[in-house]
Amino acid sequence: MTSDRGDAEIDYVIYIAAARERIWAALTDAATTPIWFFGRRIESEWRAGSALCYRMPDGGVEARGQIIEIDPPRLVRYRLSPERAGPAMISSVIAVEIAEFGGMCRLELREEHAAPVPERRIVAARQVWPAVLSSLKTLLETGRPAEIDVVRLFDGEA
Known about the structure:
By secondary structure, the chain is of the alpha+beta class. The protein is built from four helices and seven strands.
């Protein structure tokens, strides 16, 4: 089943009890991303136009992209294309915006698609992004990574 909207979106908001600069550092530091992003390393020079790569724990590339817009420590938008081929593997634009909110921060992640997206891809993304950002929140608030069963999550059991 394919989403009938060409501009299918995933929008997720989470509140994190940490300074915006700390959240930004955790999002952009290639040594830190594997701790909260289930072993994946996000690699980039973090400048507009620079390349971006999601690298798996075994060193393989999961997805590649390019930074579209960046305003540290407030906003990053990047285009992302999975390395795997297939009908569910459609390029997306990911935007992460961090805003101060009282003594904490509001982080909003939006994933947009220019083409119709299979419904199972939307369902998977709506399960995965909350887990990923909850893991980031747990790390920043407790100093420990979240213990989330990623295999069950990706199998749609969570």
